[in-house]
Amino acid sequence: MLAYLAKRLVSLAVSLAVASLVIFLVVEVAPGDPASYMLGINARPDTVAALRAELGLDLSKPERYVAWVGGMLTGDFGTSYTYRTPVSQMVADRLWVSLPLALYALSLSTLIAFPAGLYAASRRGRMGDAAVMGATQLGVAVPNFWFAMLLVLLFAIKLGWFAAGGFPGWDEPLQAIKALTLPAIALALPQAAILARVMRSSLIDILGEDFIRTARAKGLSPGQALRRHGLRNALIPVLTIVGLQFSFLLAGAIIIEQVFFLPGLGRLIFQSITQRDLIVVESVVMLLVFAVIVVNFLVDLAYAAVDPRLRTRR
Amino acid sequence: MTSSGPKYPGGAERSEAGAEPPLLDVDRLSVTIGGKTILHAISLQIAAGEIVALTGESGSGKSMTALATMGLLPGRARASGALRLDGRDLLPLTEPQLCAIRGKQIGMIFQEPMTALNPLQTIHTQVAETILIHGAASRAEASRIAADTLARVGLPPDRISHDRYPHELSGGQRQRVIIAMAIALRPKLLIADEPTTALDVTTQAQILTLLKRLVREDGMALMMITHDLAVVHDMADRIAVMKDGEIVETGPTRALFANMRHPYTRALFEASRHRAVLHRREAAEPLLRVAQVHRVYPGPRQGLFGPRSVTQAVRGVSFDIARGERVGLVGESGCGKSTLTRAILGLEPVTSGTITLDGHPVFTHGHPNLSVRRRMQVVFQDPYGSFNPRHRVDRLITEPFHLLPDPPRGAARDMAIDEALSAVGLSPDDRHKHIHAFSGGQRQRLAIARALIIRPELILFDEAVSALDVRVRAQILDLIAQLSRDYGLTYLFISHDLSVVRGITDRVLVMQAGQIVEQGPTDRVFDAPEHPYTRQLIAAAPVLPETGGHDAAAPAH
């Protein structure tokens, strides 16, 4: 187990180093001067030169890379050109919306998908299965912003249970959670639909395995065999999807953030790109890469927790 | 060599005459699935302490009988008749009632030890579950019983930690765990469905001995399902021969083997000990030369930056095969047979040593040597898995043509297809069919046709008849013998099944742990084995009785 952990940690560190290098090279070494790109084609040469000095572009490339990575390691992500505020502060503010939203949506999606998948698999080919499969088909097909608009229409406008948008901040946790509820549901439904389908097919594969028959021969009922021997075995593909979904939810919520006027990471990236604020783009992308790699690491650990065969493979 | 002594001391008559009611009474049991009758009113009794073997070919209904007894028939199956365990009919019982019986009064052992255990639970947990699920003991008590049971089946905790997971055990050890799960609650009836078919001969012998011991100790009844008449002969007190969902003949083992009444039983017996007639061949120059071949696989690193461990799959193997010679290669799983086979085919490099066909290396510059490769073909165990189900026969069997620089086209191709199909006893008209339209034996014929079509000089038969029923196996062996005469074939016949190798080869190589430990003329090796390992293999293999039915003479060879 320790060897497995060490191996995963080394691979995590290597991935991060490679990713930072790639992002740096793409943004900094790609043709064109970031300063003149950020200022647009009509900028005066002395303004460009001033920005170059401010961005540290007059240093050599290795020096700039070390400065950038060193800065990130100490929490200094640089200063946004557009907003004139530290990038770390901006990202932190947005992260406090996006991270809870992603976790909230992921929990909802898992809570819906697991029982739905389990139920469908245990009723394979019968009415219940068909109903769940029909619903998930719909969930996969309908875009999440459409769900979002329906939710706003029903729960915000018609029933008035939730606000239609905006985020009050975390000073009042209950209000904050309430504000994130409709977006989280809108994000969770399509993800839950995918996850439920994966869960169902994974379980059905496992139910055909010989050890399920062995369990039945021991005297377990079909339900007991499914829960005690099927579930954990079916979890590996499901965990993979959960990991992918989390990465997607963190940055991919941009449309939902627009619908609900949430100040999240997705909107930050969108704005930074339109305003050519490369420092912000660079830092946020690095942060997202970091999040994806860490989540993959956690998924690897979860695999090992579930499957002893991975633990003992040296 | 045969064990013709008293097989079940003190209880020979127990099976006949119903003084006391039998433990299991299958009474005119019929099973239909979707309107098709799978079992036709079969009747069978098993007394306590008795071993009854159900034998027959695939599709004869043996496994269905076992599943019906367990109440584990597929959902669409309908059963009628009666199935009494200790006088209580199981057929009308509800699912919860059956759950209470399964594992407690009836235990079952399956064919595939590699997949029959949950990979995510320790063996101890899985054995204890049998006890806990029936509420037969407290958690602590169940844990103790599970440990005792594992020790009883030959897995004492000081030898095999009970906290191991299935993947950390060998096939034979896993089968012991499965037996432990089945007998943990000392059921009255044990059902074993081909329990040793997937195991090596020495492991098979150990598992059969274990089963016999447990049955005698606990006074269990054992319903043993096997296609292997030699195993039946070694194990059973009584035999029921099944064919097409009916029991065609039944009787005490020795009496039945001494006087087989039903033609099907005799056919099975003859096929089981069938030996193909090989034509005499002249001495010839070597075709394949394997010289001092080593194959080492790098294993996982020991620790994060430690040195890699190495697995020596093949260690210094040398042998020649002369043109026209028929050579067998036997050994247990993991002995290096498969690695050697792949190396001969040029599918992977050797670490050191040389393999040449007619003087040309099979593997050069990191690639299989194509000009040599087209002179060799291979026939595998699973014909269905080796054919693309979407292609028609003509395309399937002409696959090796891609090895040729100038493959035949048009009329020449058609002729080659017709000839290959005719050679293996199929009709040229079969060329337009898909693979699913053929039976297992016909598929293996197609696999041989595919190998023959480019007229190879050497064919490797890799467990080529292991998955076939005995009668089909006998036909395929005859076909191979006939082709060796008609085409002057040279072949290497690789198998774990000693009796098959004996009947189809001139010379045999015995492989153990990557080395050839003995080689020589087949009859000499089998009749007077020199190496202890060869002796052990031959002793472990179950044997058919010498006398059989109408013809008592063993075939002189």
TrEMBL record, chain A:
The chain crosses the membrane at residues 101-121, 142-164, 176-196, 234-256, 284-306. It is a multi-pass membrane protein. SUPFAM superfamilies: MetI-like (SSF161098). InterPro entries: BPD_transp_1_N (IPR045621), MetI-like (IPR000515), MetI-like_sf (IPR035906). Residues 95-299 form the ABC transmembrane type-1 domain. Keywords: Cell membrane, Membrane, Transmembrane, Transmembrane helix, Transport. Belongs to the binding-protein-dependent transport system permease family. This is ABC transporter permease. It comes from Thetidibacter halocola.
Automatic annotation (TrEMBL), chain B:
Its main location: membrane. It is found in: Cell inner membrane. It comes from the Bacteria. Belongs to the ABC transporter superfamily. Keywords: ATP-binding, Nucleotide-binding, Transport. Residues 1-21 are annotated as: Disordered. It is a peripheral membrane protein. This is ABC transporter ATP-binding protein. It comes from Thetidibacter halocola. Pfam families: ABC_tran (PF00005), oligo_HPY (PF08352). GO terms for biological process: peptide transport; transmembrane transport. Residues 24-269, 288-538 form the ABC transporter domain.
